[in-house]
Task: inverse folding
Protein backbone atom coordinates (compact mmCIF):
# COMPACT_ATOMS: atom_id res chain seq x y z
CA UNK A 1 0.00 0.00 0.00
CA UNK A 2 1.34 3.39 -0.97
CA UNK A 3 1.26 6.15 1.69
CA UNK A 4 -0.56 9.25 0.44
CA UNK A 5 -1.88 12.46 1.95
CA UNK A 6 -5.44 11.14 1.58
CA UNK A 7 -4.55 7.99 3.49
CA UNK A 8 -2.87 10.07 6.21
CA UNK A 9 -5.90 12.38 6.59
CA UNK A 10 -8.32 9.44 6.57
CA UNK A 11 -6.29 7.73 9.29
CA UNK A 12 -6.16 10.86 11.41
CA UNK A 13 -9.91 11.37 11.12
CA UNK A 14 -10.60 7.72 11.96
CA UNK A 15 -8.42 7.67 15.10
CA UNK A 16 -11.13 8.86 17.54
CA UNK A 17 -13.46 6.11 16.36
CA UNK A 18 -10.81 3.40 16.66
CA UNK A 19 -9.75 4.45 20.18
CA UNK A 20 -13.31 5.10 21.30
CA UNK A 21 -12.79 8.75 22.15
CA UNK A 22 -11.53 11.94 20.58
CA UNK A 23 -7.88 12.73 21.22
CA UNK A 24 -8.75 16.21 22.51
CA UNK A 25 -11.45 15.08 24.93
CA UNK A 26 -10.59 15.63 28.56
CA UNK A 27 -13.10 14.01 30.87
CA UNK A 28 -11.03 14.61 34.03
CA UNK A 29 -10.61 18.38 33.58
CA UNK A 30 -13.70 20.28 34.71
CA UNK A 31 -14.77 23.75 33.72
CA UNK A 32 -12.86 26.47 31.92
CA UNK A 33 -9.30 25.13 32.30
CA UNK A 34 -7.80 24.83 28.81
CA UNK A 35 -4.63 23.35 27.39
CA UNK A 36 -2.74 25.35 24.82
CA UNK A 37 -0.68 23.94 21.97
CA UNK A 38 2.30 23.40 24.29
CA UNK A 39 0.11 21.48 26.78
CA UNK A 40 0.30 24.22 29.41
CA UNK A 41 -2.84 24.27 31.50
CA UNK A 42 -4.14 27.83 31.51
CA UNK A 43 -6.48 29.64 33.88
CA UNK A 44 -8.86 32.58 33.78
CA UNK A 45 -7.85 35.32 36.20
CA UNK A 46 -11.52 35.85 37.15
CA UNK A 47 -11.56 32.40 38.79
CA UNK A 48 -8.89 33.57 41.26
CA UNK A 49 -9.24 37.35 41.68
CA UNK A 50 -12.11 39.86 41.91
CA UNK A 51 -10.43 42.58 39.84
CA UNK A 52 -7.51 42.88 37.43
CA UNK A 53 -6.03 45.91 39.22
CA UNK A 54 -2.52 46.82 38.05
CA UNK A 55 -2.00 43.25 36.86
CA UNK A 56 -2.08 39.60 37.87
CA UNK A 57 0.42 36.76 37.85
CA UNK A 58 -0.71 33.16 38.31
CA UNK A 59 2.01 30.52 38.54
CA UNK A 60 0.79 26.93 38.23
CA UNK A 61 3.45 24.69 39.80
CA UNK A 62 1.89 21.52 38.39
CA UNK A 63 1.76 22.78 34.80
CA UNK A 64 5.08 24.65 35.26
CA UNK A 65 3.66 27.76 33.66
CA UNK A 66 3.32 31.43 34.59
CA UNK A 67 0.45 33.51 33.23
CA UNK A 68 0.79 37.27 33.36
CA UNK A 69 -2.09 39.69 32.75
CA UNK A 70 -1.36 43.38 32.39
CA UNK A 71 -3.81 46.04 33.58
CA UNK A 72 -5.31 46.26 30.06
CA UNK A 73 -6.18 42.54 30.10
CA UNK A 74 -3.40 41.30 27.80
CA UNK A 75 -2.27 37.79 28.81
CA UNK A 76 1.23 36.36 28.38
CA UNK A 77 2.28 32.76 29.00
CA UNK A 78 5.74 31.51 30.05
CA UNK A 79 7.31 28.14 30.93
CA UNK A 80 8.84 28.03 34.42
CA UNK A 81 10.96 26.06 36.81
CA UNK A 82 9.22 25.18 40.06
CA UNK A 83 10.28 24.04 43.54
CA UNK A 84 11.95 20.63 43.89
CA UNK A 85 9.30 19.36 46.31
CA UNK A 86 5.95 20.27 47.81
CA UNK A 87 7.71 20.99 51.12
CA UNK A 88 9.58 23.85 49.42
CA UNK A 89 6.46 25.15 47.69
CA UNK A 90 4.32 27.86 49.15
CA UNK A 91 0.90 28.31 47.58
CA UNK A 92 -1.66 31.04 47.90
CA UNK A 93 -1.99 34.78 47.40
CA UNK A 94 0.83 37.30 47.60
CA UNK A 95 1.96 40.38 45.67
CA UNK A 96 5.02 41.96 44.10
CA UNK A 97 6.59 44.25 46.71
CA UNK A 98 9.94 45.04 45.08
CA UNK A 99 11.74 44.74 41.73
CA UNK A 100 15.50 44.42 41.22
CA UNK A 101 17.72 44.49 38.14
CA UNK A 102 20.73 42.15 38.48
CA UNK A 103 19.78 41.15 42.03
CA UNK A 104 22.39 39.79 44.40
CA UNK A 105 21.74 36.37 45.95
CA UNK A 106 22.34 34.81 49.34
CA UNK A 107 21.04 31.34 50.23
CA UNK A 108 18.37 31.11 52.91
CA UNK A 109 19.31 29.51 56.25
CA UNK A 110 17.57 26.26 55.25
CA UNK A 111 19.43 26.22 51.90
CA UNK A 112 22.76 26.63 53.73
CA UNK A 113 21.78 23.76 56.01
CA UNK A 114 21.02 21.48 53.04
CA UNK A 115 23.95 22.70 50.93
CA UNK A 116 26.79 24.00 53.15
CA UNK A 117 29.15 24.07 50.15
CA UNK A 118 27.15 26.87 48.52
CA UNK A 119 28.61 30.39 48.62
CA UNK A 120 27.27 32.73 51.29
CA UNK A 121 26.73 35.50 48.71
CA UNK A 122 26.76 35.97 44.93
CA UNK A 123 26.74 39.55 43.59
CA UNK A 124 24.29 40.72 40.95
CA UNK A 125 25.52 40.32 37.39
CA UNK A 126 27.72 37.34 38.29
CA UNK A 127 27.14 34.53 35.75
CA UNK A 128 26.75 32.03 38.62
CA UNK A 129 23.97 34.06 40.27
CA UNK A 130 20.87 31.83 40.40
CA UNK A 131 18.50 34.83 40.27
CA UNK A 132 19.51 35.73 36.73
CA UNK A 133 19.05 39.24 35.36
CA UNK A 134 15.82 40.32 37.11
CA UNK A 135 13.79 39.44 40.20
CA UNK A 136 10.30 40.23 41.42
CA UNK A 137 10.27 40.06 45.21
CA UNK A 138 7.04 38.75 46.72
CA UNK A 139 5.53 39.64 50.09
CA UNK A 140 6.54 36.19 51.36
CA UNK A 141 10.08 36.21 52.79
CA UNK A 142 12.63 34.51 50.48
CA UNK A 143 10.15 33.94 47.61
CA UNK A 144 10.91 35.42 44.19
CA UNK A 145 9.94 35.19 40.56
CA UNK A 146 13.29 35.50 38.83
CA UNK A 147 15.43 34.66 35.84
CA UNK A 148 18.03 31.96 35.54
CA UNK A 149 21.25 31.51 33.60
CA UNK A 150 20.77 27.72 33.79
CA UNK A 151 18.23 27.13 31.04
CA UNK A 152 18.09 23.39 31.85
CA UNK A 153 15.98 24.24 34.90
CA UNK A 154 12.97 25.56 32.97
CA UNK A 155 10.15 23.02 32.73
CA UNK A 156 11.46 21.07 35.72
CA UNK A 157 11.29 20.80 39.48
CA UNK A 158 14.59 22.48 40.20
CA UNK A 159 14.25 25.41 42.60
CA UNK A 160 14.34 25.80 46.36
CA UNK A 161 10.98 27.58 46.43
CA UNK A 162 11.09 30.31 43.80
CA UNK A 163 9.56 30.43 40.34
CA UNK A 164 12.22 30.66 37.64
CA UNK A 165 11.96 31.92 34.07
CA UNK A 166 14.37 32.24 31.17
CA UNK A 167 16.22 35.57 31.54
CA UNK A 168 14.62 36.99 28.39
CA UNK A 169 11.17 36.10 29.76
CA UNK A 170 11.68 37.59 33.23
CA UNK A 171 12.92 40.77 31.55
CA UNK A 172 9.60 41.01 29.64
CA UNK A 173 7.53 40.27 32.76
CA UNK A 174 9.67 42.65 34.85
CA UNK A 175 9.14 45.54 32.40
CA UNK A 176 5.35 45.06 32.41
CA UNK A 177 4.91 44.40 36.14
CA UNK A 178 4.44 47.25 38.61
CA UNK A 179 4.92 46.85 42.35
CA UNK A 180 1.52 45.90 43.73
CA UNK A 181 0.79 43.28 41.06
CA UNK A 182 -1.35 40.51 42.54
CA UNK A 183 0.22 37.03 42.52
CA UNK A 184 -1.16 33.56 43.14
CA UNK A 185 0.86 30.35 43.27
CA UNK A 186 -1.18 27.22 42.75
Result:
Amino acid sequence: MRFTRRLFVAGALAAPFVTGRAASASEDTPGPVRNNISAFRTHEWQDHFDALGVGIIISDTTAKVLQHWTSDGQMYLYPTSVPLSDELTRRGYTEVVEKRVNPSWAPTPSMRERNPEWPAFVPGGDPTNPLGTRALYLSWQYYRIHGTHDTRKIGRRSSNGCIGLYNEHIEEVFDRTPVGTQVKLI
Q: What stands out?
A: The helical segments are 5-19, 109-114, 167-176.
